[in-house]
Amino acid sequence: MAGGLWRGGHHQFHRRRGAVLMALRPLIDRRIVEALLETELRRAADCRLLLVNARYDSTAPTEFTARIDGTPQPVRVTDQDSVLGIVAAWQELLDGAETELLLVVTSDVPANVLGWDVRAHAVGRRILSVDRAEIVKQLFGAADLDPRMIRETWLLTALLEAEPVDGWPRSGSVLTRDDAVRALVGERLGLGRGSAGHLLELDTNALLAWSRTTAGPARFRELPGAERDGLTAWLTDTVGAAAPTLLSLVADGRGQDAMALGVLGSVLSAPEAPAGTSFALGGLFGSSLRSVEDLPKFTASVIGTLARWIAEAEVSTPAGAEARQRVYAVLDRADALASEAGLGQALRIDPLLPSGFRARLRDLAAALPDSSKAAEAALDQVLAHQLARLHPASCEAARMAVRVVRWLDGPAPTAESVGQAVHEQFAQWGWADRALRVLAAGDPMGDPVVGQAYHLLIGSARARRSALDEQFAARLAGWTRTASSQAPGGALLIEDVLEMLAVPMATGTSPLLLVLDGMSAAIAAQLGDEIDRRIWTEIAPAPQAATPPRRHAAVSMLPSVTTISRASLLSGMPTNGKQAAEISGFETFWKRHRRVGRLFHKGQIGGAEGHRLAPELLEALAGDDIVAVVLNTIDDALDHGQEGERTSWRLRDISHLLDLLNAARGYGRPVMLVSDHGHVLDRSPHGQGPLKAPGAQSARWRTGEAGEGEVELSGPRVREGGGTIVAPWREDIRYTPRKAGYHGGASLAEVTVPVIMLVPAQELLPPGWVVLPNEQTLPAWWRAGSDAAPAPVETGAPVIRRPRRRAEAQAGEALFAADEVTPATLTLGGKVVGSQRYKTQRKFVRRPPDGKAVVAVIDALAEAGGKLTPDAVAAAAAEATGRSQRNAEVFVTVVQRLLNIEGYGVINLVDAGRTVELNIPLLQEQFGTEQP
Length: 932
Known about the structure:
The chain is an alpha/beta fold. Helix content is about 45%, strand content about 10%. The strands form eight sheets. Strands 13, 14, 15, 16, 17, 18, 19, 24 and 25 form a nine-stranded mixed beta sheet that branches. The protein has a six-stranded mixed beta sheet with strand order 1-10-5-9-8-7, with helices on both faces. A hairpin with a 2-residue loop joins strand 2 and strand 3 (about 20). The longest helix is centred in the middle third of the chain and has 33 residues, at about 450-480. The chain is elongated, with a radius of gyration of 40 Å. The two termini are about 60 Å apart.
């Protein structure tokens, strides 16, 4: 066939009822004319006339510029129905001044009628007839075409109309229908092209994200109906069963609401949906929902995509922030649609909508005054909400509220002695302070109902803490009169910390002492929680008798200020002084023990540009000297107003702390974290100035007579005021202008000196010391239910590293727990998981998924006809277990190991990993189940 894209020769005829009728001429437009010029003029570069058996679209331009072999050339198109008209048009071209002008004549005049005098000047010396399939083949640079495409006029026409400026991608010798439609989808829907050398990747996630744009859906709505139907059918086969409903919504101009409607569809069609709400589905979707059977497939895809976005939004990066915006754009719109439909109240406890999360927080607020059991149940509901992961601060405040309730529900504590009180402050009451610090900042979502509930709870807890401080102050007053290293009265004195704890630690490898100025028991509790137990092992002296090991806490000097307490700590004796006295006292103490002690203060810690730590400090750490470093971050924050804005302290918040821990680990040094005193935060009401009292010497101590909320202290441990001072035990008393926090007073939070001791390897455990499991450092009320009881520890047995805590495990392998499901469940998934073959197979899979998750995955796939996206599968598992699957593909791979016995493909990832496919008959055969 000469001419390739265009067939020449005699005019075609159809015979009907004896009459000779010409074939119906195809309608062509500018794009087809340009394709004709581009291809045919390559064979006849000197010709200026093209004769085409076609009709030219009357709405198309008759004069334009076309690029032929990269060169722009003017073109004139004319439609003529007679020989005279054709001749006249040709003669007009010849008489004109434009020598580069090309003439295209569309006509139904037969070639034998036209004559050779005109045809001799035409390209190919004949009249060309249009073959769209040939044009498309040429445009894609293919030698052959998928036979199915020849019958699809809508596809051929669309490919001609939508050709991009730089042309269609070359697809090889044969242009397949899938490649052609995929390229068309990229152009028509505005999805673009795949990366170099790759086809455009299309899946449900991409299509749902596209529906939220403006330009792409608008293009789709403007397409001819036949093309929309064709693209919808292809996308349904390629992307999945969610496509028809999604594209129907887009075609109806509701693409922006498609995902929001999918969320509501999931909620309203769920078995636990409130009665009557299912009728609202028809009103929400209208005619866009072709069949009720399409809804579960569509909603499952939406929920799966949202689950992926939520997981992406958990990361504190720009990409995470963008994902968070996407999530809330969808969910806030879903909330708005529900409100407009009068469904707000019915969906108030929904597990995905923001209104449901806020409602659950309010339910928690209402449960706080009832009991710890009711509060824990409400907290479980808050944490089970899908958006809980995006509101870690709100969830943390909720957890702290429930912990405070559990603490208040327990027996009222008492300060029986100074030693017992400071120990309990570090072991129990400081944890309550930690929780109250978080609660005092309020709920980050700003709900006034939740805020008021927290305010009342804080008031109850502070009343208990105030009573403890008052009791402690009375005990402290009596104890201080005679307390000394020779008669400590059951307490560990701050000046004895080096002798009692540091010296035994130094019997092996020299330790690193990190003095965190101003670290309270509440801050120490959190820092201890943050320590990576895979690297560091907490240790303690072996206890007497059968009592479990415990952390140690010392009593500060009085008043509890830096110049007295820190100097006494580092000198190993009661003393006053600043840095020079501390250095001299530290060196002298270790000289008595025939060791060299080196003390580093602020300004001696950080290295020069390019170095984390100073060379002198690193040199000391590399040797055998006992090294101590003073870190002032916490105490400085009290002076500069930063501490009052904090709800927590992390290891990374304290300058140089992580660097020093890493250096100690590298040099194999044990570490002691110790404070010199604690502190209280400013609690005085706004507008209230300092207490006007005589003899004020500092923010929290003075001389004179004690008044309400104060206690008089005297004895050998009181190093100011001639041996007698007045110090407040109430947190809201201060004698100087407002700061973020204060120290020097007689409250437990100021006087308690927490101590945490660590080794980087258990081989460095000092003789007579034991491992202190993390579980034994947590108060029983800090954890709920069965987690509350600490694991038993045999102090004399060889030590082993404890397993990771649940919070650590959830970041990795504990996505897969060991819970089982009874075979009494009547669903297909329940029968599989309850079968003996499944239980046998489970033994051979490392860290198998939770049985509930497997049941949910099988049932969700069965309900969807055997196909879902990996995200939808992971979302089903997360809904069943309450634990998110951060990597859907990895989760599916582990499920495959469980179900694909002997390599048979019961469950598979197909479509390049974009679809999870369940072979239900094979599943039933392999596990001996029946159709549910």
